[in-house]
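Hi F.,

I've been meaning to write this up properly since the lab meeting, where we talked about keeping a consistent format for the predictions we share between groups. The idea is simple: the sequence comes first, exactly as it goes in, then the structure tokens exactly as they come out, then a line or two of notes. No screenshots and no reformatting. I'm using this chain as the first example so we have something concrete to point to.
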Amino acid sequence: MTVGFSGSCLCGAVTFESEMEPMAVGHCHCEDCRKSSGTGHCTHVAVREDALSLNGSVTAFEKPADSGNLVSRHFCGTCGSPVYSTNAARPGNIFLRASVVDQPEKLEAQLVVWTKRATAFDPVDKKLMGFEAEIPPEVMAEMMAAE
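Output, unedited:
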């Protein structure tokens, strides 16, 4: 596998390699991302599921998002590090947490969603393309069409 980037959880029990560069990198300020990250937002790195090799065991927590779509958050059962999420509305895609990528220099955020839920302690980066709620389907489709 040609590696675009790789990563691991805090304890190293879960590792991954992506054979592609990220299709998209974005910040999310929704309440679920804030609570699951322990900070003001999550940064997600989108890749195709078939381009990712995951090793180790993850535990999942599922909860419907504000959109009604079921989101599954996967984390290391040993150290608790969030590793990735999936969204029922985006089959075939995985959204890795940027915090577990070992080459952060390969990541550059392009957008921010749920800006209306951003907190005063973690303001929105105004230089990025921003959306008050979830990303519009046509924008998501364009970004996810990347090879």
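Notes:
Helices lie at 31-37, 137-144.
The first strand starts at residue 5 and ends at 8.

If this format works for you, I'll send the rest the same way.

G.
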